[in-house]
Structures are given as C-alpha cells and as structure tokens.
C-alpha cells in the first residue's frame, strides 16, 4: 500500500468536519510484504486517521476561495489550558477551533479559552461560519449578478433576495470612517476621558 497523503499536506477530516495538516505517517508492516499493509495519518486531532477518512484539497476549491477573498480554513489547535479529562463535554476534547485567513496559517480568528469552555458548541458554529465566509460572499455576488442581469424575468422573491445581496455586498465593501468632531462622537469620547 502506498501513502495517499504526505507530511504537511492539508486534508479534510470528514468525521471532524475540519481541515487539518498531516503531521506524521505511521506505516504498519507485515512479514512477507514489500509495502506497508496499512498507513495511518496523524493530523493533530488526538487520534490517527485512515486514508478513507481524509480527503485531499482540490485545486478548484482553492481557486474559488482566492477569488472570493482568500483561503480561509478551519483548523484545530491543541487545548493548552485544560487537560482532555477536564473538557470531556467539548465536541472535540483536547482541541479548539482556529480559523486561519492566510496561506501561511497566520492571522485569523480564535477565541479565548474561558469563552470556548463556557459554550463550545456556539464557538464551533462560529468557527464554521467564519471559515465559510469567502464562499458565502462569492455566492452573494453570484446572486446579485444574476438578479442584475435578469431583472425582467426574475420573480419578486428573487428580486428581494438580489436587493438584500447588494446591500450585504455594499456593507462589506465600505470601510468604516473615523469619528469626526462634527459627528459628536469625538466630543463625547473626550468628555468621558
């Protein structure tokens, strides 16, 4: 049996529902065979996985993400503030979600340990939502373009969704402006200081 994944390769772990990186390959050898009879993969999630539990990243997935705003992915980091016995109520004991938004696994989103421990299922949901944001943004763009090109034929419900999509795109594209003294925000901030 030949290895289907290599060290440092990004893979989708189906049972966890998250991206991970192969940290170590563990071949199992049997006497009389020239190749390993089984290979398991350590992806840093507390147990080893077999090849059928993992999926390699496809080229077209990353191209779509790059066009939508980046290759955001959900990874799991080891929980350093609690041993796994103390966090058995977590969905994935011993780990917590980290959304990375940079190709070098820098930057992104993570939550403080105490907040994760308070409501781990809420934080897991937020991590999945944030990691899919570029794809959701691409879907909203497609919807807005479709409605813009088909205003005559689109049903009223679709037109309503198109207007909402345009409003969301506008709110994402606009940069917030710093408060000015004329807006009154600067004045109130000075009074409280």
Structural description of this entry:
This protein is α+β, with helices and mostly antiparallel strands and 193 residues long. It folds into three domains: 10-56; 59-131, no CATH class; 135-173, no CATH class. It is built from six helices and nine strands; from the N terminus they run ββββββαβββααααα. The strands form three sheets. The protein has a three-stranded antiparallel beta sheet, with no helix packed on it. β1 (10-13) and β2 form a beta hairpin. α1 packs across α4 (133-149) and α4 (133-149) packs across α5 (156-173). The longest helix is centred in the C-terminal third of the chain and has 18 residues, at 156-173. The protein is extended, with a radius of gyration of 23 Å.
SSE diagram, text form:
Layout: E1 10-13, E2 18-21, E3 24-28, E4 38-42, E5 48-50, E6 54-56, H1 59-68, E7 73-78, E8 95-100, E9 108-109, H2 113-118, H3 120-131, H4 133-149, H5 156-173, H6 185-192
Antiparallel strand pairs: 1-2, 1-6, 3-4, 4-5, 7-8, 8-9
Helix pairs in contact: 1-4, 4-5
């Amino acid at each position: 049996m030949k290895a289907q994944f290599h060290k440092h390769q990004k893979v989708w772990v189906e049972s966890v529902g998250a991206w991970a990186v192969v940290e170590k390959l563990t071949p199992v050898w049997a006497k009389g065979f020239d190749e390993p009879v089984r290979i398991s993969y350590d992806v840093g999630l507390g147990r080893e996985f077999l090849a059928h539990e993992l999926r390699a990243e496809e080229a077209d997935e990353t191209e779509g993400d790059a066009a939508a705003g980046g290759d955001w992915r959900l990874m799991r980091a080891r929980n350093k503030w609690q041993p796994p016995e103390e966090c058995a109520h977590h969905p994935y004991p011993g780990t917590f979600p980290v959304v990375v938004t940079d190709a070098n696994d820098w930057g992104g989103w993570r939550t403080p340990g105490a907040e994760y421990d308070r409501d781990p299922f809420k934080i897991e949901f937020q991590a999945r939502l944030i990691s899919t944001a570029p794809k959701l943004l691409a879907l909203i763009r497609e919807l807005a373009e479709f409605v813009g090109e088909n205003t005559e034929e689109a049903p009223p419900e679709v037109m309503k969704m198109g207007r909402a999509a345009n409003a969301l795109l506008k709110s994402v594209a606009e940069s917030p402006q710093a408060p000015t003294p004329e807006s009154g925000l600067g004045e109130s901030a000075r009074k409280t200081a």
